[in-house]
């Protein structure tokens, strides 16, 4: 699945079964109007596709990669080892171990190969972090992020007001 303009964010995941979690990142990118692509890329089942994806992403214009995986979640770290793009790892929770295995597989990267790891199931923040990375050099995206933050503040204010009624 791809947007019409060249994708700036690549959302990849180890299995289509991860999509129910990763959809939150896709939703954020849609809301912010950020061109993105979505691909199943498995470190274990499609290792050659993973290598090709990681090596070619920057040259295709991708600026940030959001990579989600569950269990033995090697995808984000392996991709980070083959690109200089920022990689945001999303630990996908599975039925066994509740995602702690996914988190530990992604977060404990060796020095030199960074992966920005969000919380277990935290694909929404992964999408927002990708937007922030792009927003550092794109005032229009930064403006939308500022408006988003204002919306959060306003929503808390409304909920607080409702508590006073
Ligand atoms: C991981 O194995 C995937 O990221 C997924 O979270 C997990 C299970 O995959 P399926 O067996 O559901 O395809 O590589």
From TrEMBL:
List positions binding substrate. Answer: 15, 18, 45
Q: Which residues cross the membrane?
A: none
Keywords for the protein's UniProt record, in alphabetical order? Isomerase, Purine biosynthesis
Tell me where the signal peptide lies: none
Q: What is its EC number?
A: 5.4.99.18
Q: Name the SMART domains for this protein.
A: AIRC
Domain PurE per the UniProt entry, residue ranges: 7-156
The keyword Acyltransferase is assigned to this record: no
Q: What class of enzyme is it?
A: isomerase
What's the stated role of this polypeptide?
A: Catalyzes the conversion of N5-carboxyaminoimidazole ribonucleotide (N5-CAIR) to 4-carboxy-5-aminoimidazole ribonucleotide (CAIR).
Q: What is this protein's record name?
A: N5-carboxyaminoimidazole ribonucleotide mutase
């Amino acid at each position: 699945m791809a947007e019409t303009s060249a994708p700036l964010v690549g959302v990849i995941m180890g299995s289509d079964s991860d999509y129910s979690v990763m959809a939150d990142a896709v939703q954020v990118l849609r809301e912010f109007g950020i061109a993105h692509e979505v691909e199943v890329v498995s470190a274990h089942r499609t290792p050659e596709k993973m290598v090709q994806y990681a090596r070619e992403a920057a040259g295709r214009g991708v600026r940030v990669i959001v990579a989600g995986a569950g269990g033995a979640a090697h995808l984000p770290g392996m991709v980070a080892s083959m690109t200089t793009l920022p990689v945001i790892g999303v630990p996908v929770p599975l039925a066994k171990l509740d995602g702690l295995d996914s988190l530990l597989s992604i977060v404990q990267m060796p020095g030199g190969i960074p992966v920005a790891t969000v919380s277990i199931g935290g694909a929404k923040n992964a999408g927002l972090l990708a937007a922030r990375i792009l927003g550092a050099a794109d005032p229009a995206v930064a403006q939308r992020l500022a408006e988003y933050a204002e919306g959060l503040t306003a929503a808390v204010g409304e909920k607080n007001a409702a508590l006073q009624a």
